[in-house]
Amino acid sequence: MPKFTSKILLSVLFLVLAGCSAPRGNYVILLPEDDGSVGEVSVRNDAGVQTISSVNTVVEIPSDKAPKKPRELSSDLVAKLVAETEAAQPPKPLSFFFFFGFDSAELTEESNVIFESVLAEIQTRETVDISLIGHTDTIGASDYNKELGLRRAGNLRDKLIESGINASSIDIKSLGEENPLGGDEGQGTNAFNRRVDMVLR
Amino acid sequence: MFLVRKLRTSFLTLASLSLVFAFSSVTQADESAIAYVKVLNGACYVESGGAERILQIGDPLYKDDIVKTRSESSLGVSFRDNTLVSLGSNSSLKLNNFEFDPDNKKLAFAVQLFEGTLLYISGIIAKLTKNPDEDLQITTPAGTISVRGTKMFVRAE
């Protein structure tokens, strides 16, 4: 009976140690994304491959052998290992939509309000770079729409520059009528396709 | 009369030229920049085209750059596809390849961690790619990691 107990104790001890021992050398740990979802990672070298798809799981990669079998680490240990690096993560990129009237490159009233909130967000960041993609509805020639999309994005860029954003960190292009929201053929004439998509990084 | 006309022509040429220059200097985004420095603590450097210089917040980064952090230093970078990467102290990372042109189906993200630590949060390339094993690679001295849309921590030595 004591033998049996010590066996259990030993295996418990082993499990605890396995979760506690810090990974060594080259390794990768899979982390949960902010929305709680978990992706998948494969690790390969000349000697083999391992795939991990559960949180706080590590694969160590010896330099002359195949990647080791994945093992789970305690969340405390993971938090300790990643702390310094995670603290330097850039702020999350944000997306905004700006809408325009029919055949117009002038921002609507609502879009001007959104513009103000974008400026407020920019103030909270030390540095920004911005992508603008112009879109149109499917009414009219596609060449004309491509140019209209570019004028929409260009006007928004000019407003940003007037507000003190560095021109070299704003990137613009137009997809014209090629990329209607929702992707549905029948939706192309809708007003919500008269827009510029902004990504603020 | 001839002189006046000539003068006027050259003035016009000059005016339109300066307009072109003004226009291009205002509109030219840095097309070849693949990422920008967003967070910086301590001493961080970039080796670009054989020369090394101190990095500052807001600096653009280009393909083939090697970014480095010294002790008690860290760096946060965002790529044009919204991929976020940060490095801990004593780290060295080469930006081997980056292509983000979804309209022409050109997608590539490849970095090489020589030493140190890296925290990666995937961006749009990871969402769009159909061949993550080829298009999305993080290399360490002992093996290559391919990513299918995720957040992860890598250490290399």
Automatic annotation (TrEMBL), chain A:
UniProt domain OmpA-like: residue ranges: 87-201
Name of this chain's protein: OmpA-like domain-containing protein
Classification via CDD domains: OmpA_C-like
Localization: Cell outer membrane
Cellular component terms per the entry's GO annotation: cell outer membrane
PROSITE patterns per UniProt: OMPA_2, PROKAR_LIPOPROTEIN
UniProt xrefs under InterPro entries: Bact_OuterMem_StrucFunc, OMP_bac, OmpA-like, OmpA-like_sf
Lineage: Bacteria, Pseudomonadati, Pseudomonadota, Alphaproteobacteria, Rhodospirillales
Source organism of the structure: Kiloniella spongiae
Keyword hit for Signal: yes
Gene3D superfamilies: OmpA-like domain (3.30.1330.60)
Leader sequence residues: 1-24
Keywords associated with the record: Cell outer membrane, Membrane, Signal
Main localization category: membrane
Pfam families: OmpA
